[in-house]
């Protein structure tokens, strides 16, 4: 989210995606009253899932809601497997829940090779068990959000499914308030576990479709982007005051078919 490699990674453009962002934040803030502790944000490639995920992280940090996250990315060797997931999550969890330090660090010190063990074992000993211990001591009651963006960009499909099942088993069997946010394309092998008995009732499937009026958001983004070009480009003063026309903007909106990635490339 905030590493050097991702400093320019986009979040939602101001005043766009407000409906879906508000829905997700309401779900996070009111989690104690809900039965659905897993959110699956699904949509086509380029629909803006990652931008929404990054905006949710930013909103949680602003509101001091503990959140740990991992953004998969298909072409980045450091982010296209599950190998670094636990180390990344643990680092972030310790930052937002310092009380876990005295529980987790001795585990790592006593078994330095624990990060080479199975994903399930790492989750159990470095995330789930410490959270249960802290909860049993009544030292911490605030909800923790675990966010996984681009799940379908993890190279191994079996690992994608394992991640869903491992996390579902934890939120389904513990009283500790943990919420899990997945974002991915609606691939069949991902849909199957989310729809399976024992998991489906815990999942809120949120489809990023035209229900959230992407055309309006794309239009706003384009207008702001073209205005920025006119105001900042060295030759902006040579552009006509009416550039671009409403019809030209609308043409781009129509061609985008609700895909933010299209207009991002167009604006650049």
Mean pLDDT: 85
Radius of gyration equals: 21 Å
Low-confidence stretches: none
Query: What's the architecture of the largest domain, going by CATH?
Result: 3-Layer(aba) Sandwich
Q: Any idea of the CATH class of the largest domain?
A: Alpha Beta
Task: Bin the strand percentage.
Answer: 5-15%
Overview of this structure, please?
With 268 residues, the chain is an alpha/beta fold. The protein has 2 domains: 18-210, Rossmann fold (3-Layer(aba) Sandwich); 214-266. The protein contains 10 helices and 5 strands. The chain has helices at 18-29, 49-62, 85-96, 101-110, 119-136, 157-171, 188-195, 214-232, 246-256, 260-267, and strands at residues 38-42, 67-71, 144-149, 178-184, 203-207. A 5-stranded parallel beta sheet has the order 2-3-4-1-5, with helices on both faces. Helix 1 (18-29) crosses helix 2 and helix 5 packs parallel to helix 6. The longest helix is centred in the C-terminal third of the chain and has 19 residues, at 214-232. The protein is elongated and about 70 Å long. The two termini are 22 Å apart.
């Amino acid at each position: 989210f905030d590493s050097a490699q991702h400093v320019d990674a986009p979040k939602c453009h101001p005043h766009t995606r407000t409906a879906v962002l508000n829905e997700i934040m309401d779900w996070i803030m009111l989690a104690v009253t809900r039965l659905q502790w897993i959110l699956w944000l699904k949509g086509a490639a380029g629909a803006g899932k990652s931008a929404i995920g990054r905006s949710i992280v930013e909103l949680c940090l602003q509101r001091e809601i503990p959140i740990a996250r991992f953004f998969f990315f298909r072409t980045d060797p450091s982010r296209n497997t599950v190998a670094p997931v636990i180390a990344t999550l643990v680092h972030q969890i310790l930052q937002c829940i310092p009380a876990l330090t005295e529980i987790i660090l001795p585990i790592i010190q006593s078994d330095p090779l624990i990060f080479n063990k199975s994903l399930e074992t790492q989750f159990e000993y470095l995330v789930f068990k410490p959270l249960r211990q802290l909860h049993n001591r009544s030292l911490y009651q605030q909800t923790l959000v675990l966010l996984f963006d681009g799940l379908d960009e993890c190279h191994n499909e079996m690992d994608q499914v394992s991640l869903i099942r491992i996390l579902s088993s934890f939120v389904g069997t513990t009283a500790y308030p943990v919420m899990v946010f997945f974002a991915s394309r609606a691939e069949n092998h991902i849909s199957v576990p989310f729809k399976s008995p024992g998991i489906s009732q815990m999942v809120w499937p949120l489809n990023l479709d035209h229900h959230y009026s992407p055309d309006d958001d794309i239009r706003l983004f384009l207008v702001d982007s073209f205005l920025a070009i006119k105001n900042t480009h060295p030759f902006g003063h040579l552009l006509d005051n009416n550039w671009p026309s409403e019809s030209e903007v609308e043409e781009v909106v129509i061609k985008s078919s609700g895909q933010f990635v299209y207009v991002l490339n167009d604006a650049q």
